[in-house]
Amino acid sequence: MQRSLRQLTPEHLDIVKEIANIGSGHAATSLSKILEQRIDMAVPSVEIASFSDLLNMDDAETPVVAAYLKMSGALPGHLFIMFDLGEVDDLMKPMLRGNPLNAEELLVNPLYSSFLGEIGNIMAGAYISALSDFSGRNSYLSPPQVCVDMKSAVLSEGILDLSLYEDQVMVINAVLSNGETHQTIHSAFTLLPELSGLSSFIELLEGKNG
Amino acid sequence: MVEVLAVGLSDIKVARQGQNLRSSGLGSCVGLVLFDSLRHIAGMAHIMLPDNKITRGKAHPPGKFANTAVPELLKQLLAIGAKKSNLYAKMAGGAEMFRTTTGFTANIGMRNIEAVKAELDAHHFELVSADVGGNFGRSIEFVTETGDLRIHTVSQGDKVI
After folding, report:
1. For chain B, what is the domain count?
2. What domains can be seen in chain A, in order of their start residue?
């Protein structure tokens, strides 16, 4: 039978949310260390969105900072971790030492992009290890690639192959906040599983739910 | 007052004088415009992939693939009064946003550009201008009144072709 994200029930999504929650906890701990400040992460929300919701015209042009990682192993697919450009300042404060940040700098300064790649790596790694623990099957991540560009231009890369059999994606929205300043940093974690990964993912959730 | 028609992923839309056509956030996708400047009629396709031969059963909109988008765009333009002999093409997009994409999406931006060019040749359409490739996204708006294609980017400035 053709598998689709549409088949996921609210109970399935609760399981995903729980996995994401564990992942967020790990990610917050790791980020606190690298950023040398307390980072809290709120309980993430999980939603299934259509491509047209994901790439809606209103914010298609919004500049985002994105880390892209390719997933392989038990759950092959594409992962995008995106931050609002305007909020990345806060995330990078320990590196910037008071200097303001702009998009050009993020693009040309390899130190900044590798730093953002590492943030993406930590967050993705935390979620994926939570998922691997839960499923007992390992997934692996490619090194991150960082890109600053329009949201739609970035995300459409991940849906090219997916769009041949699926028209929906899973989005995990996480809100990071600085424990001292209470500044919030929104991040969206978009998971685009390949067809083979999608089947095993849904079977896994059904197994745990049954 | 000019009305702006949004051309989303895999869409094809046509416009008359007083209407502009717009595609936001093109990455490896190609925004193709065919226009009849005498009659101020234009059409835009937001093409994602080169060829529909890779599909597996599921029905797809014609605007999604270069080889199905061009004939459909032509059909719709003729239906609202364009003359084929007076249609010219402009296009933008076809970037490589990331280097790691493998499998059939490898070099997809370049392959989209080539596929669109091949289709235009097959239909004997002249490509009057293009802004393609690179590693950055583009938003485009075609001004039906003047035949200008306006291009906006985050980091590479704006231009008109």
Report:
1. 1
2. 5-209 (3.40.1550.10)
Exactly one of B14, B29, B108, B149 is catalytic; name it.
B29
Q: Which chain A residues are Cβ-neighbours of B134 within 8 angstroms? A: none
Residue of B nearest to A152 (CA): B25
Q: Which domain holds residue B18?
A: 3-160
Nearest to A78 by CA among A202, A191, A198: A191
Distance CA(A186)–CA(A188), nearest Å, equals: 7
**What token pair was written down for B89?**
């093409």
Per-residue pLDDT reduced to its tens digit, B31-84: 999 999 899 999 999 999 998 887 766 678 899 999 999 999 999 999 999 999
Which parts of A20-167 are beta strand (E)? 39-41, 45-50, 63-73, 77-84, 139-141, 145-150
Please report the pLDDT score of residue A129 as a whole number.
Answer: 87
Residue A187: name the closest of A177, A179, A178, A175 by CA.
Answer: A175
How big is chain A by its Cα radius of gyration, in Å?
Answer: 17
CATH number at residue B128: 3.30.1330.200
Instruction: Calculate how close chain A gets to B14, using CA atoms only, in Å.
Output: 18
d(CA B114, CA B70): 13
Say if residue B30 is exposed, middle or buried (CB neighbours under 10 Å; 0-12, 13-18, 19+): buried
What's the pLDDT at A210?
Answer: 42
